[in-house]
Every structure is written in C-alpha cells, then in structure tokens.
Amino acid sequence: MNLLPNDSYDTTMIAAPTICSLPEGLVIELSTPLTPIGGLDRESLARLVKRTVPASPALAAGLPGVGEGLDLPDSLRLELFTTLLQILPDWLPLFFGITGAHPDQTLSLARRLEAELQRFPIPPPVYWVDLPLWGHSNRGLPQSCHNLLQYLSRPLVLMNHPQVIRSKAKFLKHINLRTAVFKKLALLPQVSGLIYQGDMRRFLHYCAALATRPDFILYEADEYRFLTRPGARGLFSSGAQLFPSIWQQVAQVCWFPEDMKDKGGRSGSVWEWSELLLRLHDLYRVYPAALLKAGLHHLGVLDFPAVWPSTETPPAPVQERFLAMLAQVQGRLDFNPPR
C-alpha cells in the first residue's frame, strides 16, 4: 500500500466538517485479524465483515481494547482502515479508532486517515473514535479536542472507558471524564456521541449534561449491563462477533420488548439466548481481545487466533472453559436456532 509521506499533507485546517446523525442500535466492534507474524489477515477480515454486516447498522474497528488499536503501529491501523473501505458496503457506517499515545500522535494518524477519505469522490460514512484520557488529562481537554477537530471532516465520537485507562497505570487518579469536562466537550458540535463504560451514577450525570444536545448519542459499552438493564440508544458489542444474529434479536427485544407481546413463545426463547450470552460474556470479559479471537478461530472465521504481543492472554484453563461454553452455544444454535 502506498502511504502518503508526511510532507504531502495539507497543513491547513478543514473548514467545513460534515455533521450528520450517528447510527443507533447494535454496533458490532471488530477484532483485528492478524497473521502469526503480526500482519493484517485480510481474508479473515473479509469473512468477519461478511459475518457481521447483516446483523448491525454499523461496524467499529481499530478501537482500544478488543480492536487492539492502542498497541498496533500506525501503518497497520492505516492498512486496516483502507482494507475495510475496500470490502465494506459503501452504505455501511464505520466507526474507526484514532487514539494515539499522545495528542500529537492522534492528530498525525487522523490526518493520514483523512487523506485516505479524500480519495473517494463521495466519502464513505466514517466516524472517528477517540479515547481522550489515554494521552491527555481532564485539565485542558476541551481545548485539545477543539484543536483536533479543526483537522477532521467527520464527526468525532469519544470513549469513556476506565478499564482501558486503568491498564495504562493502575494508580491513575482520574480514569473517567469529569462531568464538567464532558459538558464542555458536548458543546462542540462535531463531537456527536460517547461510548460509555462505567458506573450508572456517572452515566446519569452525563445524560443530564446533554440537555442542549438532543442529537448526541450515548452508546453503552458494557454488555452485561445492557443485557440486564438496557437504557442507551446504542450498544457497542465486541461479543456480538461470535453470534451476530442472536445478539441482533436479543438487542431488539431489549430495546423494544413491546414488540414481543403478540409473538407467542418467541420472547421466552430470546430471553433464554440472553442468558447464554451473559454466561459467555462472564467467561471472556477479563481477556476479551484474546478470547474473542480464540472463539472466532474456533468458529472458523479467523485463520489464526493471533494477538499483538502486548495483548494480555488468559491461562489455558480459562480459554478451555470459554471454548467449551462456545461449543455448547454453537451446538444449541445448530439444533434450535432462535425464532
């Protein structure tokens, strides 16, 4: 792939960013398929996309956590992005991670990705995703975000993910966006959504801070909380890669339980599948990046379960229990698919 050299970028700011509504519903967060030597496994990526597209109004890739976006080199992240633009349907929205180790690296990667978008006569529907506390404190964050937005032509979705932030340093004092800081960030029109992981009290504070932004979308990032107490207008789910059609049906019931009133035994069947998804989630939640790849390899979607060297991997017994449960769910799906 030909990468544009740094000095080929236009250093002027983008004057007219595209502001549009974000997709709601189930957004499936993709793992990054890798070869054993650390390259992008394009064939596995194509199978993963084909598997997930029918069940989701949008996909997400290159994100921190399951997507390993914080560990992958920028060259591989750029290759992942350009490959996805080639294989995704041109109508399907893509959320893509731009977070770097520090704000300058985030800006550098974002500008490279923006340059790829400019190759399209009609730019594809792309939304940038940033975990701002990874490389910046709460202090001065709204101004830093404002500076980044000057170079972006697409909406920006922020992440609040204390588990990922804590992995950087276990004793960090501030692992969440302060509510006052979030309120200032939400005043920036191009900041269009937040992917939220954290306690419910803070979530409610964030909701209250959005009184002037009815267009702003809060996405749930905690699969367990969504399955037990759905509330947000959207869900980012990496576990949905395993059984997309089941997740699609369960999520629909979580959001619209009234639709099940006149559909016989289907509601009970879907809730039984919900319980199985909860049991699976309990097994992969501590090592999601490694175990989801192991699961996708077990299901024949990925050729290799390879993870980036810095990705935490589970003890063998943990993986064995997860794969045994996965096989149980797959067997039930083959015998008695949800109606």
UniProtKB/TrEMBL annotation:
The keyword Lyase applies. This is Dihydrodipicolinate synthase family protein. InterPro entries: Aldolase_TIM, DapA-like. Gene3D superfamilies: Aldolase class I. Keywords: Lyase. It comes from the Bacteria. GO terms for molecular function: lyase activity.
